[in-house]
Design brief:
Layout lengths: L57 H4 L15 E4 H7 L4 E2 L1 H6 L10 E4 L9 E4 L1 E2 L1 H9 L3 E4 L2
């Protein structure tokens, strides 16, 4: 039966800390495992991240790798009118209906309808945004383009 005082860590689970510069018995005397001389032998002797010994560092040699990223950019789920016609939906076309048939992949993103393709039927489309050409084509076919939320 296992008792509380029988509990032990697995062998090798704890390794003692290396105590350097603490006399001959430690095995790490004089230079304390830092080699001899040089920048890394000194106190505080490391170079900063990205430093290349005075050579122009890569993050300054490659300016095209830097740039501005707009954190507030809105990513839309897009759907062309040609794709909408191929789905063969009846009645109201909503983001939920499009998600149900697999036309869009994420309901958290706003939906934008683009004007590539043709519309033959009168749809009542509800989306967060419409391109100008999509709105014209939908209304020309007798449908309505309704902006939501």
């Amino acid at each position: 039966m296992l008792k509380l005082d029988d509990l032990r860590s697995a062998p090798g689970a704890f390794k003692p800390r290396k105590r350097v510069g603490r006399g001959h018995g430690s095995g790490h005397v004089k230079t304390a495992g830092r080699g001899t001389k040089g920048q890394n032998a000194r106190t505080g002797g490391r170079v900063r991240l990205g430093f290349e010994g005075g050579q122009n560092p890569i993050y300054r040699r490659m300016p095209y790798k830097r740039g501005f990223v707009n954190r507030f950019r809105v990513e839309y789920e897009v759907l062309n009118l040609g794709q909408l016609e191929a789905l063969g939906l009846e009645g109201d076309v909503t983001p939920e209906a499009l998600y149900a048939v697999g036309a869009i992949g994420d309901l958290k993103r706003p939906l934008k309808i683009l004007g590539d393709g043709t519309v033959r039927r009168a749809y009542r489309i509800q989306a967060h945004k419409f391109s100008a050409s999509a709105r014209v084509k939908i209304e020309a076919a007798g449908g309505t383009a309704e902006v939501i939320g």
